[in-house]
Amino acid sequence: MKLSTIIPLASLAIVGTVLAIGALHDTPLGMEFTVPPRNAEIEVVDLGLGDLTLRGILVDGEGQPVPEAGVTTEQAGRPVWAWSRRDGTFELGDLRPGPLLLRVVALGFEASQFEVALTESTPAGETRTFQLDRPIGAPPEPPVLSLADLDGTVRFGPLATPELGYELLFQPVTAPTDPAGGFPRRAPVAPDGSFHVDLLHAGRYRAILLSPDDRGATEPDLLQTRHGEPRTFTHEAGGDTPRLDLVATMGAVTGRVYASSRDEGLAVDLAAESASEPDPVRGALVKIERVSADEDASEGETVLDRVTFRATRSAQDGRFELHDLLPGSYRLTLVAGRERRTVDMTVPAGEVATIDIDLSR
User: Fold this and answer.
1) Residues 78, 70: contact at Cβ < 8 Å?
2) Secondary structure (3-state) at 164
């Protein structure tokens, strides 16, 4: 054998020896291992297993077997379970002496529990009988639905725009858990004020009129009076309900924003500058909020309903309109440039309140 062949083989042998010695003495992954001495006793792990078996049979109130039922128990933190066979029998093995609580779940029966005691003297072939005496009965018959169509008309207030699409919500007065009291229904209002509801369940309802901006909501109710009285009615079965006539109580506010003296911070109409009339202010933000009757408010404090507000902007001629307002007290806020005004006012039911605001004062 040539010397050039012997040297590489010897090098490989030396490297393999070094790696073998390192593998025997180095601990991989930083773990320490100890070699147990010869004839050392291995610690016994207690799995909580016993040598007793509980045999049983599940029967119903008439003594017939109950198959495919789940039987479970727990002993020393260890769950033990089994399924009953076609003849109702089951077995739970590896149990220790002591009390047991059996839980049985079977189709067609309420869940049941049984207390059982196992002793060393329990006969090996003993079969215990467990009777499931709480069957689940048939569900109660649902109430018969009394359905009938409902027709009616809504008489709108001033400045209403029925062509934009108002909506009626019929809310049952009874609790939602009472199916005999009816179900909430919605119906669109035609431009002529008429409406139709197919197959409305008989019961007592509250009618809620919603503006085109509030469709799909539950308030504000444009049928509600100033004193908060809702419009309720009883829908009879068999089509005996007369045609429903609803009167909208909402009012409106119209006004004009102008400046009697020229202010560079306001967007006035230059075409009207030479006229003798005051300059109209266009693009002014007009917002109106209803004053809430809050019993917790301190004396002299005004609480505003921040949810049901209306807002618009003044037109080229400075005029503005706010529609679909419930009757009551309001606070109107106007912002134009650097100017800001607030006015407290009352909106009568079914009427139009008019207000003009001079921003130069």
Assistant:
1) no
2) helix
Contact 97, 119 (CB under 8 A): yes
Q: What are the structural domains, with CATH classification, of the chain?
A: 52-131 (2.60.40.1120), 147-247 (2.60.40.1120), 251-358 (2.60.40.1120)
Cα–Cα dist 74/81, whole Å:
8
Query: pLDDT digit string (tens) for 261-319?
Result: 655 555 555 444 444 568 899 999 999 998 876 555 455 566 777 667 899 999 999 99
**This prediction's pTM:** 0.57
Contact between 231 and 168 (Cβ < 8 Å): no
Helices in the chain by DSSP H: which ranges?
A: 3-25
The strand pair at 112-118 and 231-235 is best described as unpaired
Q: How far apart are CA 170 and CA 267, in angstroms?
A: 46
**Extended beta strands in 180-336, E state:** 185-189, 194-201, 203-210, 231-235, 244-247, 251-259, 279-280, 285-291, 304-313, 319-325, 328-336
What tokens does 162 get?
A: 């029925």
- Which two three-digit tokens encode residue 163? 């062509």
Per the CB < 8 A criterion, the answer to whether 65 and 59 are in contact is yes
238 touches 145 (CB < 8 A): no
Q: Are 173 and 152 in contact (CB under 8 A)?
A: no
Cα separation, 146 vs 143, in Å, equals: 9
**How far is it, in rounded angstroms, from Cα 336 to Cα 137?**
71
